[in-house]
Amino acid sequence: MRILITGGRGMLGRTLQNRWQVAHTLAVADLPEVDVTAPGTLAEAFRAFRPEVVLHCAAKTNVDACEGDRDGAFRLNAEGSANVARACAAHGARLIAISTDYVFAGDRPGDRSEDEPTAPKTVYGASKLAGEEAIRALCPDHVIARTAWLYGPGGPSFVHAILRNARANPGRPLRVVDDQHGNPTSTLALADALTALLARPELRGTFHLTCEGVVTWCGFAREILRLAGLRTPVEPCPTEAYPRPAPRPHWSALSKAKLAAAGLPPMPAWQEALARFFAADPSLLAPNA
How far is 36 from 55, CA to CA, in rounded Å? Predict the structure, then answer.
């Protein structure tokens, strides 16, 4: 297939390029050459490449930065997504767009299903939800793939931050939040799921693509350090110990009911995906990782 990846130089985009570069013909639409908020540059990319599928990764994802820049967040996450959706509809391209658990309130236990009411509590979540709504309205041939707690080769990610902090301060305990629950998800596992979706062109709608199993950031950090062979102590703390501009959801776990209903392969357990991530990148075990 001819696949255009917006935001293709980001963490997920790099993983997808590595995964699909042999099987498919790829083009990257990213700054500075292509700006999804500038319909002209986007239209030129479509005319030049003629994509059959667009994997829309371009987004403003820094949650705290979004809180202080509402206009910028909506310009990229909402208007940019609308521009991509219009271009896909005009050119007959299938659209697979990446979204987030932040479209939910995250204030009660349990896994959120694809059809549950959304109620974002942050500018980031609200702007991503607006992008979802634009895609649904403008491009019938779409899949919205929500994910969460993403990490991948090259980072930046929570995994890389934990390893960096542990090695910068040997023996010093790390304090990590222990009252936020979610599904840590590797870009490698997400790429597998997106590959399966590519092979099913009849599928449309919203799918949750996070790894199975629920853990807190504290529990996640402990498993990261164990796999890295580091003995750094991890001390649990509440969210209030690290006040941030944007509120963090206490419950980010997502149900994968539609994935199962479509007969697609299940997502791996988060522990399995993390072990695979370490096995694929020996540099994570190096002292300066």
Answer: 13
pLDDT tens per residue across span 4-24: 999 999 999 999 999 999 999
Residue 125 within any structural domain of the chain: yes
- Residue-wise pLDDT for 67-109, tens only, equals 999 999 999 999 999 999 999 999 999 999 999 999 999 999 9
CB-side exposure of 286: number of CA atoms within 13 Å?
Answer: 5
CA atoms within 13 A on the CB side of 147: 27
Residue 127: inside a domain: yes
> How far is residue 236's CA from residue 178's CA, in Å, rounded to a whole number?
5
Q: What is the CATH number of the domain that holds 96?
A: 3.40.50.720
Residue 165 within a domain = no
Which amino acids are annotated catalytic?
Answer: 124
SS3 15: helix
pTM score: 0.97
Based on the structure, what is the number of domains in the chain? Answer: 1
